[in-house]
Amino acid sequence: MTQNSKTGAAFIVGGTIAGAGVSATVGGMGLAGGFGAVGIGATPVVAAGAVAGAAAYGAINAIAITPDGTTVMRRRIACRRHRKSLNTSN
Length: 90
What we know:
The protein has 2 helices and 5 strands, in the order H-E-E-H-E-E-E. The chain is elongated. The chain has 90 residues and is α+β, with helices and mostly antiparallel strands. The strands form 2 sheets. Strands 3-4-5 form a 3-stranded antiparallel sheet. Helix 1 (3-26) runs antiparallel to helix 2 (42-62). It has helices at 3-26, 42-62, and strands at residues 29-33, 36-40, 63-65, 71-79, 84-89.
């Protein structure tokens, strides 16, 4: 496992734990509308936490801080011919 995969996995696990914490704290949630009401259990809230953790990792990974302290967005360009990714700065 590379360092990037370990970091990404840590963000996903952290989001999952946060989702479980929200579900345990808030308890029985639901959506109500003209269609009636639907209960939301712990599973979708935990899954949403995992997705939020993955999104946070992607957002942090997309932003690079240069040595002079400025922030730039990084863009990945996939090279189909060689099947590798190149990092470029905007």
